[in-house]
Structures are given as structure tokens and as C-alpha cells.
From TrEMBL:
Functional summary from the UniProt entry: Is responsible for the charging of tRNA(Phe) with phenylalanine in mitochondrial translation.
GO biological process, one term: phenylalanyl-tRNA aminoacylation
Included range, full protein: 76 to 514 of 518
Source organism (scientific name): Tuber aestivum (summer truffle)
Stated name of the protein: Phenylalanine--tRNA ligase, mitochondrial
GO terms for MF: ATP binding; phenylalanine-tRNA ligase activity; tRNA binding
């Protein structure tokens, strides 16, 4: 049960049955890693910003993470039953207020303010999620958008013509792009009724070219770094041209939509989502005459590749051996200080029959386990996996088994420390979820 109010960034918010904000999350609000000048996330942010110069683009790096459900979901056209809205996926301050799950939460307001043709919004975002080396419940995104006024382009042949001119004037990037997708597709990736085919095609082409330039720059630097450091993937990296590909996607607030993937050390990695802005957004924001594109890129993903950072928890480290390695404006390869040993612990338990209610809790989601472990072990938890699950044929009770990997990035964890963390996890499962631990 939560206290009647919680204080966040100096304001009191009433709590209710939707509140699910643990203290280890609310304490992250003040870190603002993307604003620490020599932090790799800030260096990455500035590198991308340099590809989108003012005055065309305005930067917003200080917007509050506490937003309304309306901003985060409704304003973007998320249907009422969208899974992203559930308490298992999103941190609720109360029924009307969430920690933003993406920087798109600020699109509508920024369109409404209408102070520039384009913007970049960098910010911390919050999602309940798995625990492993590339997932953390707090991460950072950069939202980008570019809009054109149809009226303002009339004298120059219309929006599509103006955009095509801009495209012609952009330099070549020399990377290898696979894009088998049509500019839009009637069923899979439709043209909006408000747009002409020429407009959608021009906006989409401009969007893709701008983002290809970002990738060419960022990955050119990352590969140069990997080659210089002689690290994994360095062999052949200098000769092989960079490969990227566009994949059709779906977002409620863009159409057509795509994702951009890069081929990196043997795998296709998803880097960002983007598309042609749904006309309902500028319309509802009082600028119906504007048309354009938006993208959202995960900054940790980019920074991990750029600096060779192997574990997402490192971004949160206050250890000088981590922070001392980076300097404002410089891309360098992370040098691991040491690999400390892992400590694996399994835990198996029965859940109460569904329908029975213990401590107000009636169901158990995998993300509830993640949350318990985060709360107890903080950054000492490296990875949590569901390794077994079955339902007893007679009693109908469900049994789950999780394997937790405890490991500190800064020192060797003692076995008795891991044991006592494990004991605490068990206690929470029993007391808050009515679980019966199987020994
Ligand atoms: N907000 C989307 C996400 O977090 C990314 C996105 C941004 C997609 C802007 C389209 C346009 O997945």
C-alpha cells in the first residue's frame, strides 16, 4: 500500500489504486544523465544534435518526466485497450499521471508551441521491463521532428517540391542502405487521407535520408573506435561498408512508419522508430497546415555501440573508473575495469490460485518479478530469466522458477550477500504475492 501522496520533483501527487512507483525508480528522476557533460549519454546526444542544426531545429532537454496519461497515450492516438497502458508495463503516479514511457509524450505540446520548424527532445523515459544487460527500467530517448507549412510552401511549388529540393541539396553518405519498401502500402503502411502521394513520398524520403546521415556519422565513429581498439568485430570492419536497412513498422501516431536497423557484429539491431506524422496531431495542436516527420531513437543503444559499453547498468554507475573514462565531445572506447564473477540463484514458487487475493494482489506478471528483484537488489541484479513454468493438472496452481544472476560491476559480490538478497526476494514473494516457495 502506498502513502496517500508521493513527492516528486518538489510536488505532491495523490496516490490511488493505480500507483505502482517504487522508490528505486523515483530516485532516478534526479540523475539527468543526458545533461552531464562528460557522460556518454550526453556525448551521444550532442553528436546526434549536431546533425540537426538550429535555427531549423530547437532542442528541449529539460522537460519533466511526469506527464499525464493524455500526453503519453491519448494525444498520440493510443487505443484505450493498448497493452502499453497497463500497470504491468508503465509506472503510474496515479490514474491520471505516469512517468513518460517515451519522448513522443511531448510531441503534441511541442507542435502546439509552434516556435520552430523542427525539434529534438532528449529525455529519460520509464518502462517496466525485463532485467538483462540491455534493458533497464529507465533509459533515454531522443525525439526528432521536422514540419513544413503547406501555405508557406505554396509560392515555391508546394510542400513536396520544396522537400525534394532540400533532398537534392543534401550530400551523399556512402553507406549501403537496403530499402525494399514502397513509399507507402495500402494495407501494411497506408498513406493518410489528408496527404497526397507526392507529399508522403517526399516527407518519407527526407526522413530516411536525414536518419541515414546520422547513422553514417555515428557508426563511422564507432567502427573507427573498434578498429583502433582491436576489439571484437574490429576485423574487417574498416573495409566492409556499413549496412543498414529499413523495415515497415506500426505506431499509432505515424503512417507510413518504419524502423531502422543496422548490421552490427553479426546481428541486425533495431535503432529507432519513425514515420510521417499523423495529421490528427498538428490538427489537434492548432497547426493543421503543418505536415512532416518524427522519429524516436534510444540513446543507450547508440552509446553502447559508440563507446563499446557492454552493460546498460554502467550508465548509472557513479564509479570514477567508469565516469573518469569519458570527456565532453570525445568518443573513446570503454576499457572494462574488471569482470567480476557472477552468482546464479534459482527460486521456484507456487502462486496462489487465480481469483484468490492476497495483499490485494490477484495476478502475477513476469514484470512483477523484475520489479521485486530491482527493489531488493538494485543494480546488483544483472539478469533475471523465467526458466520453468507449469500448472498443476489437479490443483490448477501455477509454479514458476526464475534464475537470477547477481553480479556487481564494481566489485566481487560475496556469496552470503547474494544469499541474503535472495532471501529478501523470497520474503516479498511470500508476503506481497502469497507465493509458496518450493525448497
Ligand atoms: N515513441 C516510439 C517508441 O518509443 C518511437 C517513435 C517516435 C516512432 C516517433 C515514430 C515516431 O517506440
Amino acid at each position: 500500500p502506498s502513502p496517500p501522496t508521493i513527492q516528486l520533483e518538489g510536488r505532491h501527487y495523490p496516490t490511488d489504486e493505480w500507483t505502482n512507483l517504487p522508490s528505486h525508480i523515483s530516485s532516478a528522476l534526479s540523475r539527468k544523465l543526458h545533461l552531464q557533460p562528460s557522460h556518454p549519454l550526453s556525448i551521444t546526444r550532442r553528436l546526434i544534435e549536431s546533425r540537426f542544426p538550429g535555427p531549423t531545429y530547437q532542442y528541449h532537454n529539460n522537460l519533466s518526466p511526469i506527464v499525464s496519461v493524455h500526453q503519453n497515450f491519448d494525444s498520440l492516438g493510443f487505443p484505450i485497450d493498448h497493452p502499453g497502458r497497463s500497470r504491468t508495463d508503465t509506472y503510474y503516479v496515479n490514474k491520471d499521471t505516469v512517468l513518460r514511457t517515451h519522448t513522443s509524450a511531448h510531441q503534441a505540446d511541442t507542435f502546439r508551441s509552434g516556435t520552430s520548424d523542427g525539434f529534438l527532445i532528449s529525455a529519460d523515459v520509464y518502462r517496466r521491463d525485463a532485467i538483462d544487460r540491455s534493458h533497464y527500467p529507465v533509459f533515454h530517448q531522443m525525439e526528432g521532428a521536422r514540419m513544413w507549412s503547406r501555405d508557406g510552401c505554396k509560392a515555391r511549388g508546394g510542400v513536396a517540391a520544396v522537400i525534394m529540393e532540400d533532398i537534392e541539396s543534401m550530400p551523399k553518405h556512402g553507406i549501403n542502405v537496403e530499402d525494399p519498401n514502397p513509399p507507402f502500402h495500402e494495407k501494411r503502411n497506408p498513406l493518410q487521407v489528408e496527404h497526397t502521394p507526392e507529399e508522403a513520398q517526399a516527407v518519407g524520403a527526407h526522413l530516411k535520408l536525414c536518419l541515414e546521415h546520422v547513422v553514417a556519422e555515428v557508426f563511422g565513429l564507432a567502427r573507427a573506435g573498434a578498429v583502433a581498439a582491436g576489439g571484437a568485430g574490429a576485423e574487417g570492419a574498416s573495409e566492409e561498408p556499413l549496412r543498414v536497412r529499413w523495415v515497415e513498422a506500426y505506431f499509432p501516431f505515424t503512417s507510413p512508419s518504419w524502423e531502422l536497423e543496422v548490421y552490427w557484429q553479426g546481428n541486425w539491431l533495431e535503432l529507432l522508430g519513425c514515420g510521417v506524422v499523423q495529421q490528427s496531431l498538428p490538427k489537434n495542436a492548432g497547426v493543421p497546415d503543418k505536415i512532416g516527420w518524427a522519429f524516436g531513437v534510444g540513446l543507450e543503444r547508440v552509446a553502447m555501440l559508440l563507446f563499446g559499453i557492454p552493460d546498460i547498468r554502467l550508465f548509472w554507475s557513479c564509479d570514477k573508473r567508469f565516469l573518469g573514462q569519458f570527456k565532453k565531445g570525445e568518443i573513446s572506447r570503454f576499457v572494462p575495469f574488471s569482470k567480476f564473477p557472477p552468482c546464479y540463484k534459482d527460486i521456484a514458487f507456487w502462486l496462489p490460485r487465480s481469483g484468490s487475493s492476497v495483499g490485494g494482489q490477484v495476478s502475477f506478471h513476469e514484470n512483477d518479478m523484475m520489479e521485486i528483484v530491482r527493489n531488493v537488489a538494485g543494480d546488483l541484479a544483472e539478469d533475471v530469466k523465467l526458466i520453468d513454468e507449469f500448472t498443476h493438472p489437479k490443483t490448477g496452481r501455477k509454479s514458476l522458477c526464475f534464475r537470477i544472476n547477481y553480479r556487481s560491476l564494481e566489485r566481487t559480490l560475496r556469496n552470503d550477500e547474494a544469499n541474503s538478497l535472495q532471501q529478501m526476494v523470497k520474503r516479498v514473494l511470500v508476503e506481497e504475492f502469497g507465493a509458496e516457495v518450493r525448497e
